[in-house]
Amino acid sequence: MRLPRLHFLLVGFAFLCAVSVRASAPSGEAEKVRAVLTSWQQAVERQDVDSVLATYSDSFVVAGRPGPVGRDQLRTMTESLLTGRFRPAMFSVSDAQISVTDSTAVAEPVLFTQSWATVAMRFAFRKEPAGWRIISTAPQGLLPIERGLPGLGRDYLDLAERWASANLTWVQQTLHANPPNGGDPFMREQALLTLDEPLHLRSAPQLAPVQRFLRTNIDRAIGEMRSEKVTEGATIWKLYNHGWVVRTPNHTWAHDFYPGTGDASMTDEQVDAILGQAEALFCSHWHGDHTSMPVIKRALEKGLSVFVGPLPEEEWAERARTSVRELADSLGAGERLTFVALGDSGRLGDIRYYAYPGHQGELPNCAFVITADGMNFMQTGDQSNSDDFAWIDRVGDERTIDVFMPNVWTDQFDRVIKGVRPRVVIPGHENELGHNFEHREPYAQALERLEGQSCQWYVLAWGERVHIEPR
User: Where do you find CATH 3.10.450.50 in the chain?
Assistant: First the structure.
């Protein structure tokens, strides 16, 4: 997960919080630095802009900007950010150390906690004729959100790491012993339900056991892709989120390939290895967890054909269109990049595609049907719009869908299955770690929605594969 792009938002974090600082050693100057922070704290609590500004030096700078920030601009930023939407939910500097060297001082880490993560900040000070003043603040990186919550902190995270490691080791061993095409269904279900637990910690993307779980599973999938020959039917690998690789006897392609969130993501080598197995990449819509520009770039560099969904007629969308076209042209791959309009069809050699006119809210979303080697595969991206049932209700009348890959939270899941009438359902989008944990759809939801369906179905964890027989 990235920090906000605008540096002044990070500076603004420092305007909005209460302070308690522990000096690295007893020091008269360190106590004076702490007094400045205490004064700033009280001014923030009163929303007293003049007093807040008094704690900042006239030479206050923002990282990445040349020269100091003017006082008028600093006042405007302060007035806006004291009540702005980027105000942190919680603030803690209980672990901060103050170090003083001659006329400068530093306090770090200062922890700003929002709903999605904790940001570690560094405060820099200068001793001026009027006393110590803050001259800059700068982000030092993201930490697990629990690191900044009272009563938790470092000890809690050590315990969470050990618990997650034991949990995920058991899950991984149990899933490997009970694959989708065999083994004990009860044990698979228990492993998937257990997997929901560590993936629903707010800090899951920053936990090393979660990162290892994803990468080791993807390594296993890559090994299978390199060795598996499909002579009939199809083999499908689930990557991460709603990403898939599909292989038939003569073709291999990928859907919505997104490497992951922050450190809980695939390595560049893994991305290259997966793309090296495919001839095409289909991206349903322009959300970052489905259409990844770094993946598109690597795909075009490797000679893949890339099919992306349309964009709305808005300013940000025009910038995105221009950016991806310029990327393709710079790589000499313009002919291998296709913007697919809703309702369009086409082909890449013997692979045929059709884009049902889907939407996520108002955002265009291609619900791709790919036909290869006598089978039809449908992946819906983030399809979620009740108006689209006009075509969803007819899919099963128009074509036979052999394998259906919907997002598990799609609108009216039972009605979607009834309209598509697939032979096999493999849901996706469970536990997207880039979402707040309230919107990380659990495997429990997938199992509940599929229970009792008349079609065959499989719920896969990251990196798992399933083979589907031909009709």
Answer: 7-143
Q: What is the pLDDT of residues 450-467, one digit of tens each?
A: 999 999 999 999 999 999
The CATH fold assigned to 154-468 is Metallo-beta-lactamase; Chain A (3.60.15)
* Overall residue count recorded for the chain in this entry: 471
Q: Which residues contact 227 (CB under 8 A, 6 or more apart)?
A: none
Q: How many helices and strands in the chain, by DSSP H and E?
A: 14, 21
- Quick one: average pLDDT of 280-304? 96
Residue 392 to residue 37: CA distance in whole angstroms: 59
Ramachandran angles phi, psi of 460, nearest 5°: -110, 145
pTM, two decimals, is 0.79
Q: Where are the alpha helices (DSSP H) in 28-152?
A: 28-46, 49-54, 71-81
Whole-number Å distance between alpha carbons of 79 and 59: 19
Q: One-letter amino acid identity for 265?
A: S
109 upstream amide cis, omega within 30 of 0? yes
| Tokens (6 digits) for 421 | 């009438």
- Which residues make Cβ contacts (< 8 Å) with residue 394, sequence separation at least 6? 419
Find the Cα–Cα–Cα–Cα dihedral 365, 360, 275, 5, rounded to 10°.
Answer: 120
3 — pLDDT class (breaks 50, 70, 90): very low
Q: Are 214 and 266 in contact (CB under 8 A)?
A: yes
Q: How high does pLDDT run on average in the chain?
A: 89
Please give the Cα distance from 89 to 265 (Å, whole number): 27
The answer on pLDDT for 89 being more than 70 is: no
CA 465 to chain centre: 22
Beta sheet of 252-255, edge-to-edge order:
337-339, 305-308, 280-283, 252-255, 244-247, 234-238, 465-468
DSSP characters over 158-218: HHHHHHHHHHHHHHHHHHHHS-TTSS-HHHHHHHHHHHHHHHTSTTGGG-HHHHHHHHHHH
CB 467: neighbour CB atoms within 10 A?
15
Give the span between the Cα atoms of 457 and 413, in whole angstroms: 14
Which CATH class name applies to 7-143? alpha beta
Cite the beta strand spans of 267-325 per DSSP E: 280-283, 305-308
Contacting residues for 34 by C-beta, under 8 A, at least 6 apart: 21, 23, 98
Using the predicted structure, report yes or no on whether residue 8 has a pLDDT greater than 70.
no
| Predicted confidence (pLDDT) at residue 199 exceeds the cutoff of 50 | yes
